[in-house]
Amino acid sequence: MQSPLQILFIDDHIGLLEGISSVLQAKDSRLRFFLASSTEEAERILRANSGIALIVADLNIDGEDGIKAISLLKAIRDVPCVVYSMYADLFHVKAALAANVQGYVSKKSPTDELLSAIHAASEGKTFYCTETAQTVSKLFVKYPPPI
Questions:
Q1: Measured between alpha carbons, how far apart are the two ends of the chain, in Å?
Q2: Which residues of 70-82 are buried (b: 16+ CB within 10 A; e: fewer)?
Q3: What is the domain extent for residue 45?
Q4: Could you tell me the CA-to-CA distances from 124 to 30, 41, 89, 115, 138 in Å, in that order?
Q5: What is the H or E stretch that residue 132 is in?
Q6: Which three-class secondary structure state does DSSP give residue 14?
Q7: Based on the structure, what is the number of domains in the chain?
């Protein structure tokens, strides 16, 4: 039996946290969620639970900048992070990629895509939902990597 995958899930909408985490746990019983509705709460939970191996975070946490929250949390413990946001535009995706996230899933996506992102990030891979993958491809057209 595999050990549980402990995930810190941050969003200022508590009902969403409870609902999405319940759906994901029903699909994969190995997942264990710690729920936080603010950056301060997420920081306390991360410091208190050394087994947390992944962060799933919104980009707007009660009016706060989720990218700053991700950077703060990754400074405490460098664990993979998946963004779960209603924003899938060029500006937000580019900012998240600059923050070194391993996945980005739009809240318009089915929960299976969030589950895929969690699995990929926990294995050291990247994952972008269908909508975000289109935005990432536009980024490479607009800002091609140096050769």
A1: 45
A2: beebbeeeebbbb
A3: 5-142
A4: 17, 26, 24, 14, 24
A5: helix 130-142
A6: helix
A7: 1
CATH code of the domain covering residue 59: 3.40.50.2300
Helix (H) or strand (E) holding 56, with range, is strand 52-57
Q: What pTM does this model have?
A: 0.92
- Helices marked H in 9-89: 14-27, 39-48, 66-76
In this structure, the number of other CB atoms found within 10 A of the CB of residue 37 comes to 18
User: In this structure, is residue 147 part of a structural domain?
Assistant: no
Q: Do the beta carbons of residue 69 and residue 83 sit within 8 Å?
A: no
Per residue of the chain (147 residues), give pLDDT as tens.
579 999 999 999 999 999 999 999 999 999 999 999 999 999 999 999 999 999 999 999 988 899 999 999 999 999 999 999 999 998 999 999 999 999 999 999 999 999 999 999 999 999 999 988 888 777 666 666 676
